[in-house]
């Protein structure tokens, strides 16, 4: 039996930031509304709210305790309404440690505990715990889950034989250069620029706009290139901060991922929760033979801050993917050639769907402002090529109880899954597909937050779709049940 423990006093600061984040919009709205009149009342009300937030943060920290007792993690919290949460160690799926900038200043970490039913949020979250205490808590929960000490020692001996992969600085820089993060930064910059007029004096804004308009074309082009270059550098910096010191290690039946320069994350992935493994080749990386490896992991939580697919390695050469999987996830390894392509008659569906929106826009522009028609036609040509690439890259391969699918969204995606991981299989046909003996296949697995993850192969030959359905139902071509 362990004594109840409180988090580090820095937890007060994290509680305060959480409340402040939830109330920042009303505060800004009140400031904009009352900045000219009744400002004194707004300041008095703001001071009162600030005091309430500080007191609430202190009480929330003081009333939060946790302990491990009788094979359970027991958490008690709540200021006015006392709540108790008991989490059996048998239900715990993963224990993750995250250290942000403030955490690292105080030598702390955030402990997130997930169970099979965590949903959109972690089952339990300890916001500020000393790193040695967090590691001790993790080891204690795992030791109780594993059983006796002898079994733990045997497992530790096995773990010492497992391998680890770490990203180099050169690969990390290359990942940032080809990540496409500049587009995201550009979108954020554009949104910020569109809203900035509301927060600066009108006279200054108008004079700045007049000055920009008065610049020569050469200066404007140079300024635009400089802004794009700056956004590109920011995109590289963001990727390097996120994936800096990226290391993936296999220990027993779990994968451990550590990454981050400013915010250090330690993510635990039980192998039994992996539903599919794949690799993505973006249009920038594919010509150079690079790809990123990802996994679809069942469960997880939204406050974990992860993407919908878990990155197993940010970037590596295409020929390095198979050795990497052989070392980390051998069940998913094995060079697979001979993907079965789509029939030739499926190509027109892909290209028509890609180019149709531009043709409709082009028809409108032709009636309204015909001098811009050339730009629409240029975009329509690019869309036509994109549709052809989608058609050419789509295919599938069945090998025993494993299904591999390849398709293109913006980049080319290849995903591998086992039969036992497929939760649902569906075949769709609309009238045009029926006329051409084509069909769309939908395969569903369990994804992040316990939600479904769906993969589509569109415009399959109807006979191939039926053959895949028979593979899913363990039936042969004559409808007879096959041996599993």
* Unreliable parts: 148-153, 155-160, 476-480
Mean pLDDT across the residues is 81
* Spatial order of strands in the largest sheet: 6-5-4-10-9-8-7
Proportion of residues in helical segments? 40-55%
What class, by secondary structure content? alpha+beta
**Rg computed from alpha carbons, rounded to a whole number of angstroms:** 28 Å
Looking at the structure, what is the overall shape?
A: globular
Number of helices, where a helix is a run of at least 4 consecutive DSSP H or I residues: 14
Number of strands: 20
Beta-strand residue percentage: 25-35%
Q: What is the number of domains? A: 4
The rounded distance between the terminal residues' Cα atoms is: 47 Å
State the major sheet: 7 strands, antiparallel
Protein name: PH domain-containing protein
Coiled coil: 131-162
InterPro entries: UCP026631 (IPR014529), YdbS-like_PH (IPR005182)
Keywords: Coiled coil, Membrane, Transmembrane, Transmembrane helix
């Amino acid at each position: 039996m362990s004594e109840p423990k409180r988090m580090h006093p820095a937890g007060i600061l994290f509680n305060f930031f959480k409340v402040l984040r939830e109330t920042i919009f009303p505060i800004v709205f009140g400031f904009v509304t009352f900045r000219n009149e009744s400002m004194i009342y707004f300041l008095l009300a703001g001071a009162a709210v600030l005091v309430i937030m500080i007191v609430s943060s202190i009480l929330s920290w003081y009333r939060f305790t946790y302990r491990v007792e009788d094979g359970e993690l027991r958490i008690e919290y709540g200021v006015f309404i006392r709540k108790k949460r008991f989490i059996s160690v048998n239900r715990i799926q993963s224990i993750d440690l995250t250290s942000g900038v403030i955490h690292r200043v105080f030598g702390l970490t955030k402990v997130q505990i997930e169970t099979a039913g965590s949903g959109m949020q972690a089952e339990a979250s300890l916001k500020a715990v000393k790193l040695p205490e967090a590691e001790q808590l993790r080891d204690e929960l795992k030791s109780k889950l594993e059983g006796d000490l002898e079994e733990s020692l045997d497992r530790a001996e096995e773990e010492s034989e497992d391998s680890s992969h770490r990203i180099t600085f050169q690969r990390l820089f290359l990942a940032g250069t080809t990540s496409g993060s500049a587009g995201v930064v550009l979108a954020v910059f554009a949104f910020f620029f569109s809203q900035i007029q509301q927060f600066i004096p009108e006279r200054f804004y108008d004079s700045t706009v007049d000055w920009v308009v008065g610049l020569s074309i050469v200066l404007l082009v140079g300024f635009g290139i400089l802004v794009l270059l700056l956004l590109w550098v920011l995109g590289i910096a963001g990727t390097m901060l996120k994936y800096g010191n990226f290391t993936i290690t296999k220990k027993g039946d779990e994968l451990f991922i550590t990454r981050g320069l400013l915010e250090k994350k330690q993510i635990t992935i039980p192998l039994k929760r992996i539903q599919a493994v794949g690799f993505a080749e973006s249009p920038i990386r594919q010509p150079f033979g690079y790809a990123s490896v990802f996994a679809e992991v069942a469960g997880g939580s939204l406050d974990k801050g992860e993407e919908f697919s878990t990155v197993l390695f940010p970037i590596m050469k295409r020929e390095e993917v198979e050795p990497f999987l052989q070392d980390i996830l051998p069940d998913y390894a094995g060079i697979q050639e001979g993907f079965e392509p789509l029939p030739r008659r499926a190509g027109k569906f892909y290209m028509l769907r890609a180019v149709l929106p531009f043709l409709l826009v082009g028809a409108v522009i032709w009636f309204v402002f015909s001098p811009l028609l050339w730009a629409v036609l240029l975009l329509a040509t690019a869309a036509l090529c994109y549709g052809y690439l989608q058609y050419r890259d789509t295919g599938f391969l069945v090998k025993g109880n494993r299904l591999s699918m390849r398709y293109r969204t913006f980049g080319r995606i290849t995903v591998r899954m086992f039969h036992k991981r497929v939760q649902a299989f569906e075949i769709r046909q609309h009238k045009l597909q029926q006329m051409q003996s084509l069909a769309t296949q939908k395969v569903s697995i369990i994804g992040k937050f316990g939600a479904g993850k769906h993969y589509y192969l569109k415009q399959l030959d109807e006979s191939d779709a039926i053959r895949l359905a028979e593979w899913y139902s363990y039936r042969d071509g004559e409808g007879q049940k096959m041996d599993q």
